[in-house]
Amino acid sequence: MARLQIDAVSKKFGADYAVREVNLDIADGEFLVLLGPSGCGKSTLLRMIAGLEQPSEGRILLDGNDITDEVPQRRDLAMVFQSYALYPHLSVAKNIGFPLRARRRPRAQIAQRVSEVAATLELSALLERRPAALSGGQRQRVALARAMVRDPGAFLMDEPLSNLDAKLRSATRGELIALHRRLGATFLYVTHDQVEAMTMATRIALLNGGQIEQVGTPEELYDRPRTAFVAGFLGSPPMNLFPAQVVSQDGALRVRTEGIDVALGIDAELPADTEVLAGIRPERLRIDPTGTAVRGRITMVENLGSEELVHVSAGDVELCVRATRPAGVAVGEDIALRTDPADIHLFDKASGLRLTWQEPETAAVQDAVAVSVA
């Protein structure tokens, strides 16, 4: 069990920052996922925590103790690599017991511990095999068992499922979730796969360009993204994002651009139109012949089995609608869509930060509403 604290950690390679001033507090027993696109710095950050890279700036603390300069073997952390890193000439039992042999533990203790961990991960029948005789999923479990065998304070996992096929990846995700619940240990998990992050994490830290865009539960990042980057990264398909204006009409605010006119459900007046980046998730757009929020033309329909993705061109804006199959529409048809005011996300056009609308604090304020960056 362990609490990990990342205090203003940065890593430079030459003049360029791979990680810049990252602050994270990972609670004891938490399953935190470092998520982000390739090259965003998530693996570099994990390697610094493991001691495989030295931070250029900042500190790393484990249960309040500064381990920034500790060698990897003296950190109470276990690393699970993407490539499994199993010894091909050793049996499964010897691969699992290797960390204990390196610490010169008694043979009887090693055998007992290997047996316990193998039983937990359903590897008991495979102990005499070598890695070449195992499937990808079995090798992954052996790598996990080797990490578990010495009861580390925290598990560090660098895209451990990326080499598995889709079916096995799904099954192994379930195994990891169940393992975390059984052990109650701290898991720090790196992935670029948002499905893994959304299904496994208690919290997600989404990185972009070496910096954290947002930290929160999967629900918080999906339902209330702090930036347009978070909104566009999470979701498959991602949120529809398009430039628009917030305008006042008959004492109410609306989001408007060519082909799109959506009420915000806010009674207010603006002294001038406000340029924004607006967003609507595909599942929050609904096909409705009487709808007035969006009017456009269907450019493509994708069949996903139980669902269809309907691509719509509304003026200069390309939108995606997630609908239950059959949606009853065809390419080339005109289409009308509706959405609810609560489903509209607004972001600052320049910075990409989320916008919120606030009532003025006093009646003396001239503007009926004020826009602020969340």
Describe the protein's architecture and organization.
22% of the residues lie in helices and 37% in strands. The strands form five sheets. A six-stranded mixed β-sheet has the order 6-7-8-3-9-10, sandwiched between helices. It has a five-stranded antiparallel β-sheet with strand order 13-12-11-14-20. Helix 5 (166-183) links the parallel strand 7 (154-158) and strand 8. The chain has two domains: 4-225, P-loop containing nucleotide triphosphate hydrolases (Rossmann fold); 240-373, OB fold (Dihydrolipoamide Acetyltransferase, E2P) (Beta Barrel), CATH 2.40.50. The two termini are 34 Å apart. It is an alpha+beta fold and 374 residues long.
Outline:
With 374 residues, this protein is α+β, with helices and mostly antiparallel strands.
Which percent range fits the helix content? 10-25%
Any idea of the CATH topology of the largest domain?
Answer: Rossmann fold
Ranges where pLDDT stays below 50 over 5 or more residues in a row are 360-370
Task: Please report the total strand number as a whole number.
Answer: 22
Q: Which structural class matches the secondary elements? A: alpha+beta
Report strand %.
35-45%
Taken in chain order, the helices and strands follow as EEEHEEEHHHEHEHEEHHEEEEEEEEEEEE
Oligomer: single chain
Distance between the termini: 34 Å
Mean pLDDT: 89
Which short descriptors sum up this protein?
22 strands, 374 residues, 6-stranded mixed β-sheet, alpha+beta, 22% helix, 5-stranded antiparallel β-sheet, Rossmann fold, OB fold (Dihydrolipoamide Acetyltransferase, E2P), single chain
